[in-house]
Amino acid sequence: MIMSNGIFKSPIHRVAANSEQERISLAVFYFPDYEKEIEPLQGLINSERPQMFRKVKNYPAINFNSFHKGEIAIDTVRISPSQ
């Protein structure tokens, strides 16, 4: 969501379980190098759609720390309209 400046959002995870068949789950996570900065693509920022997220490093750590504080990670890097 950061790189798309809020245009693309993650889908809600849903499971349709079948009690008659075995279920297999697979989780896949992708994170860039922890030292790389993640920010919205410049081509997706303009006067009608200003930058919505600040530039961050090590987003997995932000996600982990936010979870333990009961916060939503993406909200901690969101730029408020007054900034």
Automatic annotation (TrEMBL):
<feature type="domain" description="Isopenicillin N synthase-like Fe(2+) 2OG dioxygenase">
    <location>
        <begin position="1"/>
        <end position="32"/>
    </location>
</feature>
<dbReference type="Pfam" id="PF03171">
    <property type="entry name" value="2OG-FeII_Oxy"/>
</dbReference>
<keyword id="KW-0479">Metal-binding</keyword>
<protein>
    <recommendedName>
        <fullName>Isopenicillin N synthase-like Fe(2+) 2OG dioxygenase domain-containing protein</fullName>
    </recommendedName>
</protein>
<keyword id="KW-0560">Oxidoreductase</keyword>
<dbReference type="GO" id="GO:0046872">
    <property type="term" value="F:metal ion binding"/>
</dbReference>
<dbReference type="InterPro" id="IPR050295">
    <property type="entry name" value="Plant_2OG-oxidoreductases"/>
</dbReference>
<keyword id="KW-0408">Iron</keyword>
<dbReference type="InterPro" id="IPR044861">
    <property type="entry name" value="IPNS-like_FE2OG_OXY"/>
</dbReference>
<dbReference type="GO" id="GO:0016491">
    <property type="term" value="F:oxidoreductase activity"/>
</dbReference>
<dbReference type="InterPro" id="IPR027443">
    <property type="entry name" value="IPNS-like_sf"/>
</dbReference>
